[in-house]
Specification:
Elements (H helix, E strand, L loop, with lengths): L2 H11 L14 E11 L2 E13 L2 E14 L2 E14 L4 E9 L4 E8 L4 E8 L2 E8 L4 E2 L1 H11 L6 E8 L4 E17 L2 E13 L5 E8 L5 E8 L2 E8 L1 H4 L13 E3 L10 E10 L13 E5 L5 E5 L17 H5 L12 H11 L5 H15 L2 E2 L8 H7 L1 E2 L1 H14 L4 E13 L2 E15 L2 E5 L1 H5 L9 E7 L7 H6 L3 E10 L1
Parallel strand pairs: 9-10, 20-21
Antiparallel strand pairs: 1-2, 1-15, 2-3, 3-4, 4-5, 5-6, 6-7, 7-8, 10-11, 11-12, 12-13, 13-14, 14-15, 16-23, 17-19, 17-26, 18-19, 22-23, 22-25, 23-24
Helix pairs in contact: 5-8, 6-8, 7-8
Length: about 500
Amino acid sequence: MKIIGIVCVCLMLTAPAAVKAGADKVQESETEYFAVFMEGKKAGYAMNERTVSDGKVTTITEVSLTINRAGIPLTVNMTSESVETAEGRPISFKSVQDLGLMKMEVSGTMQPDGKVALVNNSLGSQQKSVIDWPEGALMAEGMRLLQEAKGLKEGTEYSYSVFEPSVGTALTAKTIVGKTKPVDLLGRIVDLTEITNVLSMPGMGEISTKSYIDDDFKLQKDIMPIMNINIEMVACAKEFALGKNDVVELIGKMFIDSPVPLKNLDSVESITYYLSPLAGAKMTIPPNDNQQVRKAADGKVIMTVKPIVAPAGVKFPYQGNDKAALEALKSTQFVQSDHEEIVELARQAIGKARDAAEAVDKIEAFVADYVEDKNLSVGYASAVEVARSKQGDCTEHAVLTAALCRAVGIPAQIVTGLAYVSEWRAMQSGFGGHAWNQVYIGGKWIGLDAAFRGTGRGGYDAGHIALAAGNGDPGDFFSLVTTMGQFEFEKVEVKRK
């Protein structure tokens, strides 16, 4: 589980469940603490502080999680701050993410014209830009006021838009007020109102949580099942929240068994997968140039993955006008393709290649060898950080590959999805969360996988199921979170070359 796990927990806390404010109070401050449990074990804490002063409301959220990935501990921390008017209108925000190897800070300030002056800080560099504020998007205080206005009458439903600084975008949210029921709060039984909150991103599925709040609209418990993992957040004393954590091993929960072993994938022309959704599950699996997707009448998904070979004779840099391809040439927060270190590595990687297919093959091979320390200890790193550290897992291979391709003018995206592995740690014959690349050559998106090539597998093949593609931003992982644990493989059909 990469950065998106902790982002989702942060989203749980920023749902509309803050302490109810007295309208006649000029200044007040209150801090709430929560213990975060994963699979029944304490994995970290969350803290929510709300301060009202001088007509402004400041909400600060902290989340810290420590998990094990195949025996390797990883602690990820996130702090999010929003400043709003007493009426819930946004003034400014800031998000700080400490992802193990890399620390990133994003801040924004509303301008008189309604746009946002955005500042990104990472690796000692600063990037400034101006973005449009998503129309109608709310932050913490705006959501709290909306919830108070709607009330806690059973059956009440309403939709709204939530701006989350940690993913840099707005999510669509829906709230449904349920019954009042007895809830276990670490051994203490309390009658609370159950609220269902559904968060979604266009084309990437949705996450549903169950929140339990008291009559003062204070959050007491939140339950979120994601990626076969059950995450709970329970209000508690500060001492317990910040106390010792248990060892939580998650690798086994992020693995889906295959009906049959898939052997010699380098000799496979295509694989057709028959996916059966679990009860009540919703799957969002997009088609692309390498995979065809269709839904059967019974709700099952049938998809065929047939890797495309890059055509020879295509020159670079790219000179076309395809919108997605042009977007995939830009330097971004995680894919800093215009950085001097990246530009120099790209030159080393391609050598004298002038053909795009030859260049990306050289880049894939270069990254496979360049990342020397292939481990799970990195939370999430940018291309420049990987260039300096030479360590990481699939996502680090993917961001560096994308940056090198873009640096020489070849459009490249980072793909998140599932990939088959015959044996990894204690897992055998199944699919786990993975990241790889696709590059635009000759009007088609071609798959690359430097991480697999570095293990001797050969790179991208029909054992890959894509769920999203983009710049490697945290929001790109949303579809992986919403799809894992939602289906099982009914059968697979392999066609050999």
